[in-house]
Amino acid sequence: MIKSKAAAAPFTAWMLLFTIIPLGIVLWFAFTNADGQFTLGNLPHIWAQAATFGISIFYGAIATVICLLLAFPLAYNISRATERVQQTMVMIIMLPMWMNFLLRTYAWMSILENNGFVNQLLRLIGLVGENDYLPLINTGGAVVLGMVYNFLPFMVLPLYTVMSKIDNSVIEAAQDLGSNVFQVFGKVVIPLSIPGMLSGITMVFVPAVSTFVITKLLGGSKTLMIGDAIEQMFIGQGADYHVGATLSLVLMILILVCMAVTGMADKGEEADV
Amino acid sequence: MQTKEIIKLKDITVSFDGEPVLSGLDLNISDGEFVTLLGPSGCGKTTTLRIIGGFVTPDSGSVFFDGQDIADLPPYKRQVNTIFQRYALFPHLNVEDNVAFGMRVQKKKPAEIKETVDRMLKLVNLAGFNKRKVETLSGGQQQRVAIARALANNPRVLLLDEPLAALDLKLRKDMQVELKNIQKSLGITFIYVTHDQEEALSMSDTVVVMDAGRIQQIGTPQDIYNEPENAFVADFIGESNILDGIMHEDYLVEFFGRKFKCLDAGFGPKEPVDVVIRPEDIDIVPADKGHLTGKVTAVTFKGVHFETIVDFKGFKWMIQTTDYYPVDSVIGIVLNPEDIHIMKKSEYSGMFGDYSSYSEEFDEMANPEIDLTEEAEVQE
Ligand SMILES: Nc1ncnc2c1ncn2[C@@H]1O[C@H](COP(=O)(O)OP(=O)(O)O)[C@@H](O)[C@H]1O
Ligand SMILES: [Mg+2]
After folding, report:
1. B295 and B195 in a common domain
2. Count of CB pairs separated by less than 8 Å, A with B
3. CATH of the domain at B294
4. Complex ipTM tops 0.85
5. Which of A122, A247, B268, B356 supports an S-S bond with A127, CB 3.0-4.6 Å?
6. Has residue A5 been placed in a domain?
């Protein structure tokens, strides 16, 4: 623990410069108009974007659930493997994260395009006609896919971290006391993995709900999420910093609520132990 | 007493990563017995236990429970419960929920569960600890919870893997007595793993001595101590002086160029044998009255006795005596027939039972080269 005030100074300065001041600026924009006067006039724009918020939460939630369903068995199996396999698997899961996020998403774009890899393959094996294609790109499905692909490691890693601390003998004890596979999971593995699940949910849902790159590249113009709506308020023709700041503020509150809920669940879990 | 066989291991072979861990293991265990698997670390005790529990599938051989082959039965269907080496309590459950775990899985009635939990906690002296978190308990208390949790399942056989290894000496002694009492009062079979020979001797009906994946001897604690089958067993159980000897005829053995009467028979004429003499069986007499004379080279006070190392023609013996003989004094010893135990030669001959390289700390580090030269000198 660093107690000295002098040692904490750089941290304080950093916080001030890059967290507190920007937050203040967002707040200032949200509650002023173009003339710099205080106003609540930006708030009605929130209702105009209610549907966008709804869609964002919907896609974010679906992506989070899919990530959880995929990551849980994956993380469990890794945590039960030998040390070497564990290290290799964690490496493989982290590997895509070393590549640029945009690049990865562009790659999916070319895979899902109407003349992309998947459709060419489908034509080759005759599942779709020669001049036909399966609509993949610019769909909600493509957006969710992009989210799952990009954010899956954020679910796997916290789950793996928690699960690797579950002693094998605890699982064997459950079997020894008469539990079949399902009971072992329901009564031991899942309850012991809850802290990892909660941080995984936060770490996937937060970036998923606020993304605009994935929607833009894979969702086309039809699928608009709150991230895109905010982006539009800062760039190009219809830019309005004041409305943009208001929407950002709402998104921030949304995320804070989400984190508070998972945080509370985590506390409750600890209290039970 | 009519004893029924409850567990039978037949010709079990296991290897991990090509390394043989158990080779041709045969073991029969009677219902209601307290059986201890005793052997040095890495000899395959835990593996044997895990085979019975269903956590390790042997490469070959069969496992019978109550006469039924249970090779394909998963752990959760076996009528055995395990006390794991490191307790393995469920960290997310309190004491009561840990103990109730097995019964909840079996969907027993809440009233019955409550009654059993209280009865089990009382049995292990933890009455009233129901709502305590397991991590607030001491090691000894956690171990008791593990015992209560296993017994609450009403097993026919309880497997215990070094359950007391992590406890301090005083607590370990108390728990030994307690476990033995629990086993007697419930009348179920205990299969107990330990590397502590004293623990094995004091608790068991039957001791199974293992080394290098093989059973070296099976017998009552007295048998194992008094009639060790080979040099390994003699050395592992208590202290032993082990000498090369030649059996001249029944009840007559020669070592150190002198013939001694003994109580063993059934060896071939002139058969080379290992002779075991326990340090506490040796009587010290004035040098001129002894069968053999030697010179004291080291003395350690042990409380009950002095551990005296005596050099006989270059071969050092350990003698436990209540009288103090200073270093360099010359003494004589008398060996009565009942003090001498004869064993057949084995792969372990010459590896143990010489205190020439003996020192407190390096008890385990027998130096084979020194052993060989000593042997050569003895034969001169
Ligand atoms: N799962 C395993 N994988 C590889 N080797 C193992 C495994 N379990 C045990 N062994 C090896 O088998 C040998 C016997 O182990 P064990 O039965 O645990 O011995 P003990 O309980 O008598 O100390 C040891 O050499 C150990 O390293
Ligand atoms: Mg062991």
Report:
1. no
2. 67
3. 2.40.50.140
4. no
5. A122
6. no
Name the domain count of chain B: 2
Q: Which two tokens stand for residue B71?
A: 């090779």
Mutation target to probe the A interface, by most A beta carbons within 10 A, among B101, B108, B147, B160 is B101
Tokens of residue B204, six digits = 């068991």
Residue A27 domain flag: no
Contact B59/B46 with Cβ under 8 angstroms? no
Single out the residue in B226, B259, B282 at which a domain terminates: B226
Which tokens belong to A107? 């790659």
Report the domain count for chain A.
Answer: 1
Contacts of A168 (CB under 8 A, 6+ apart): A80
Is the pLDDT at B112 greater than 60, yes or no? Answer: yes
Dihedral pair phi/psi, residue A178, rounded to 5°: 105, 10
Whether the CB of B46 sits within 6 Å of ligand 1: yes
Residue A34 lies in a domain: no
Nearest residue to B176 (alpha-carbon basis) of B155, B157, B153, B160: B160
Nearest to A241 by CA among A18, A19, A31, A49: A31
The parent domain of residue A125 ranges over 52-272
Taking CA–CA distances from A184, the nearest residue in chain B reads B105
DSSP string, B169-209: HHHHHHHHHHHHHHHHHHT-EEEEEES-HHHHHHH-SEEEE
Same-domain pairing of B205 and B244: no
B116 touches chain A (CB under 8 A): no
For residue B79, give its domain range.
Answer: 5-226
- The answer to whether residues B375 and B350 touch, using CB atoms and an 8 Å cutoff, is yes
Q: Which among B82, B85, B106 has CB closest to A176?
A: B82
pLDDT band at residue B222 under the 50/70/90 scheme: very high
DSSP string, B203-243: H-SEEEEEETTEEEEEE-HHHHHHS-SSHHHHHHSS--EEE
d(CA B291, CA B280): 17
